[in-house]
Amino acid sequence: MHDTSHEVLVAFSDTENYPFFREVVVRFGLTSIFSANSAETQVLLARRPICLAFCEERLPQGGYREVLGQVVRSSVRIPVIVVSRTSNWNEYLKVLHDGAFDCLTCPLRLPQVEEVLKHGLREFYARNTLRPGVVA
Predict the structure, then answer these.
(1) Residue at 134 is within a domain
(2) Closest alpha carbon to 10 in 48, 91, 75, 127
(3) Residue ranges of the alpha helices (H) in the chain?
(4) Would you say the pTM of this structure is higher than 0.85?
(5) Residue 2 lies in a domain
(6) Structural domain total, the chain
(7) What is the pLDDT of residues 42-85, one digit of tens each?
């Protein structure tokens, strides 16, 4: 899958996870763009061709709920994958109920991230590609 017209957004408050996500995204033939806070993330979502977002559960100036709100207000349906530092079943269900595509817990494992990225991209293209007989 090679799509140079879209980017994967990675929103984390620290930069330690950026190289990991960059490596995973490149394997899918995509580029990544990084954000360190909720306000910057919302600007990037509004101005860049994003196809999927990984978002830390809590960001400076907000968190995943603000990111989901921006996605809901946009015309492009972007899967948002929330990354949590805690493994809590109730939090997982809450994140999904709030509208996230999926929720991953740290420490992140390569196969897990690749799998959710693959399914998220499939969902993005299914939601946003016109098919015969479908009106935009």
Answers:
(1) no
(2) 48
(3) 18-27, 38-47, 64-73, 89-97, 110-128
(4) yes
(5) no
(6) 1
(7) 889 888 899 999 999 888 888 889 888 888 887 788 999 999 98
